Amino acid sequence: MVIISGESGLAHGYADRWRADGAFEYFGAGQVGPMQMLRGNAAIANHSRNGKGLLLFNDTNAGLRFRGEMVYERHHIEKAPDREGALRDAIVFELRFLDAVVEVASLEDKAPPAVGLHDLRARALAAVAAPARTPSEGTRTIYERSRDVRDYVLARANGACEGCAEPAPFVRPNGTPYLEPHHIRRVSDGGPDDPRFVTALCPNCHRRVHAGADGDAYNRILLKQMKAIEPS
User: Fold this and answer.
1) What is the pTM for the complete model shown?
2) Under a CB-based contact definition with an 8 Å cutoff, are residues 200 and 181 in contact?
């Protein structure tokens, strides 16, 4: 999915902005009257669940500029003028850069909950299907949902790289084997939310995917392996 932000939207009541905590607040579609969680707005809120990446572009005088892949965290409603100047309820999506979410989830040294693999998998899949809700309804943040996926994927690997099958090179301070979650289908799976496209790799295999001459080919091999590791 492509979303476009630019100063031209101000004429229609769209006041997109960056927050100090790194979130991007993106106004939903609807030029006159209250915005509705339908069509394009619903597609943004449910992009991960629907298996869609969310690509942000800026509309500039020089044309469209790609800013990065985003992930929907939550949304809120605020009063804003419509195209005719009347105040209405506007949907404001709170989005974050995918890379920022992945980095936090990967580097965090918090021990996973002491539950079985079945329960961890249920939590990870629940993160995929997290409904679009406002903060008052208790939506978990994208960081929390990404952590659920990471905890399950690392537990599933059971201390061995899912690429080369070698043992993890060392143990984290929390006592768990050090492996790194790798998102095989970054654009098409909507980010960090789907354990069926996330594999646990040792640092060497992870660097091979991103920096190796055969990185793309190796990534395709990992995708094929996932059919056996994580049946749909």
Assistant:
1) 0.62
2) yes
